[in-house]
Amino acid sequence: SSKIRNMEVQSADGVAVLEDCIGFSLTKAISRIEEKLRKGGLPDCPDDDIIPSVGNEIGVEAQIRFLKAKLRVTQEDLANVVFECRKKDDENQNLETRLKDTEEEKARLQHTISMQQSQTEKYKVLSQEANRKNEGLQQEVIALEKVLQ
């Protein structure tokens, strides 16, 4: 049973475990706390909502079990929050990668657009020159037709 109790205490990760201290006796510590409670040596905290008001009516062992259960629930909540934070971090990382890719694609597309705009301007100039030549040639054809008639 001492192994089971030790494993139970060890399951509280990240919490100072008193059983690890050399010369510590849980029974002595509980006895001291009970003695202080009997003498009224421990201050009452009306704002303390860790142990409900029925906490005064239950024994120290029950209070310890209650606090251990509350610790486990708090650790589970913490684990859930850590999990959610990691999940959000992963999501942020993915979004940052997507944003970087999108920005690179935007830069590439802007370069393509500017090249196409310059080519469009070039072809407009060539088209205008071709239209002027065409008009000049049509004028020449009209003049030659008049000469032939």
Automatic annotation (TrEMBL):
Keyword Coiled coil among record annotations: yes
Keyword Coiled coil in annotation: yes
UniProt superkingdom: Eukaryota
Name this polypeptide is given: TEX9 protein
Coiled-coil segments on the chain, per record: 85-147
PANTHER family assigned to the protein according to its UniProt record, in alphabetical order: TESTIS-EXPRESSED PROTEIN 9, TSEC1-RELATED
Organism for this UniProt entry: Scytalopus superciliaris
Alphabetical UniProt keywords: Coiled coil
